[in-house]
Q: What sequence folds into this?
């Protein structure tokens, strides 16, 4: 059995999913902090 | 720890720490993956599939460490009512669930060539699957309770009680006869894993831990900012 596709699939899934949650967390954080900043400036 | 339970003090630390953890984590994960994929030899019995260890084991450790974090934060919320505790527990839940799921998926991918099957209902795999379901239940519970009254005592109690699953995962390979191999990495004693695999594994574990920390900090910062926005909008509506 060729092990290459199994190893490649495991790495690809981990790296893609980790990158997705990092990007999602970063975008959510930036959006929320920007909204908070804008509201405090409106004061 | 008590000093940093203050949101302003926490943010003054979290802001510079986030990019440090993020970029440090990315660099270490990339180094570990390249090292593991290109510079480690195939194992005598398992062949190249042994290289899955460099992503599978950190996912398992962080899945379990995540719930430990939820339990500690939940306990702080219940005992000391730390203002940051529920934010921390919620911020850990999503990456914890994801890493537990990735542990199960990579284990399954490893199991097919190594054991000849994608899945077996043995103690280690089943208890890890239970951990993943506990995360899902915690996320639903924390969202619903915060929507209802802004409090999350039920979620906090669930977070503390759920820790009972961690020793079951840890000792499952000793308590029951399992398809999953026994413990080969021992922090207190001698590890049975060869140094050629141990070093990239440690780098990978540290790298993914830094990334996990960065994700938690970013989610906590988002949650704190959102709370601030909600409070201000409520105040503006009342004026």
A:
């Amino acid at each position: 059995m060729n092990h290459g596709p199994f190893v490649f699939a495991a790495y690809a899934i981990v790296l893609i999913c980790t990158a997705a949650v990092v990007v999602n967390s970063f975008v959510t954080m930036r959006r929320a902090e920007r909204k908070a900043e804008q509201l405090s400036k409106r004061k | 720890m008590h000093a940093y339970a203050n949101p302003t003090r926490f943010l003054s630390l979290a802001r510079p720490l986030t990019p440090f953890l993020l970029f440090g984590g990315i660099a270490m994960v990339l180094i570990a993956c390249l090292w593991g994929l290109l510079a480690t030899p195939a194992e005598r019995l398992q062949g190249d599939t042994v290289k899955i260890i460099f992503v599978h084991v950190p996912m398992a450790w962080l899945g379990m460490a995540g719930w430990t974090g939820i339990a500690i934060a939940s306990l702080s919320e219940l005992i000391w009512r730390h203002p940051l505790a529920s934010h921390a527990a919620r911020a850990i839940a999503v990456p914890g669930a994801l890493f537990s799921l990735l542990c199960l998926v990579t284990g399954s991918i490893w199991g097919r060539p190594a054991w000849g099957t994608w899945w077996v209902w043995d103690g280690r795999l089943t208890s890890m699957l239970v951990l993943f379901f506990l995360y899902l239940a915690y996320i639903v519970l924390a969202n619903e309770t915060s929507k209802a009254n802004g409090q999350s005592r039920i979620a906090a109690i669930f977070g503390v009680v759920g820790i009972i699953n961690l020793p079951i995962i840890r000792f499952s390979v000793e308590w029951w006869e399992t398809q999953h191999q026994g413990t080969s990495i021992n922090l207190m004693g001698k590890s049975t894993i060869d140094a050629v695999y141990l070093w990239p594994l440690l780098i990978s574990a540290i790298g993914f831990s830094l990334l996990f920390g960065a994700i938690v900090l970013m989610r906590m910062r988002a949650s704190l900012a959102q709370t601030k926005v909600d409070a201000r909008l409520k105040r503006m509506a009342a004026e």
Notes: The interface with chain A takes residues 22, 29, 33, 37, 47-49, 51-52, 55-56, 59, 94-95, 98, 102, 105-106, 109-110, 112-113, 208, 211, 214-215, 218-219, 221-223, 225-226, 228-229, 232-233 of chain B (CB under 8 Å).
